[in-house]
Design brief:
Blueprint lengths: L1 H24 L3 H9 L11 E8 L9 E4 L4 E8 L5 H4 L4 E3 L5 H9 L16 E4 L8 E7 L4 E6 L10 E6 L1
Parallel strand pairs: 1-3, 2-8
Antiparallel strand pairs: 3-6, 4-5, 4-7, 7-8
The protein binds copper (II) ion.
C-alpha cells in the first residue's frame, strides 16, 4: 500500500516533468520518453561520504534532478560534461545555493560576470553553499564539502540561460 503511494507520487512527478519539458522544448516525444525512463535521484548512502555523480551534455540537462544526502555527511559532487562543446559556449557547473536565494537574479549576475566562462561573481559567493568550476565537453569537475543543515536547497548550472533547464533539488535529511 505504501509502495503503491510512492509509485503514484513518482508517476505524477514524472508526468509533471514531462509537461514542463514539452512546454520548454516545443514537444519532442523522443526526449520526453527518455526523461520519464530516467532515474531522477540518487540512492541515499549511509557512510560518512555521500558521492553524487552528475552528468550533463550538450543537450543542457542534468541527468539527476534530486540529490539526497544525510546531515553530517561529507558530500562529494562529481560533474561529468558528456558533450563536446567547449565551456565558452556550453559550460556547465553545479552551484548549490543557500536557501531563499532569488535564482533568476543570481543567474543574471553570473551571466554578466567578468569571471572566465561566466563563473560566479565574487560578490554573489555568499549565496552559494558550494560550487564546481565551469567545465566544457569531455571535462570533469569535483567538489567536496560538509552537508549544510537539514532542509532543501536548489542547485543550478549558472551558465547564461541554463538554469531554467538545468536545476534540481538537493535535500539534506
Ligand atoms: Cu550548463
Amino acid at each position: 500500500m505504501k509502495l503503491k503511494n510512492i509509485i503514484g507520487v513518482i508517476t505524477v512527478l514524472t508526468l509533471m516533468t514531462d509537461c514542463n519539458e514539452k512546454a520548454k522544448s516545443g514537444h519532442d516525444p523522443l526526449s520526453s520518453s527518455e526523461i520519464s525512463s530516467q532515474d531522477k535521484g540518487n540512492e541515499l548512502s549511509n557512510g560518512p561520504i555521500a558521492i553524487l555523480t552528475l552528468k550533463a551534455g550538450d543537450d543542457m540537462k542534468f541527468d539527476l534532478s534530486e540529490l539526497k544526502v544525510r546531515e553530517g555527511q561529507t558530500v562529494r559532487i562529481i560533474l561529468h560534461h558528456t558533450g563536446t562543446i567547449p565551456a565558452s559556449a556550453m559550460g556547465h557547473n553545479v552551484v548549490l545555493l543557500q536557501k531563499g536565494v532569488d535564482i533568476p537574479s543570481f543567474a543574471a549576475a553570473c551571466a554578466k560576470s567578468d569571471a572566465p566562462d561566466f563563473d560566479i561573481p565574487a560578490d554573489r559567493l555568499k549565496e552559494v553553499v558550494a560550487h564546481t568550476k565551469m567545465i566544457g565537453g569531455g571535462e570533469t569537475a569535483e567538489i567536496e564539502f560538509k552537508a549544510p543543515p537539514k532542509g532543501s536547497y536548489a542547485f543550478i548550472c549558472s551558465f547564461p540561460g541554463h538554469y531554467a533547464m538545468m536545476n534540481g533539488m538537493f535535500t539534506v535529511e
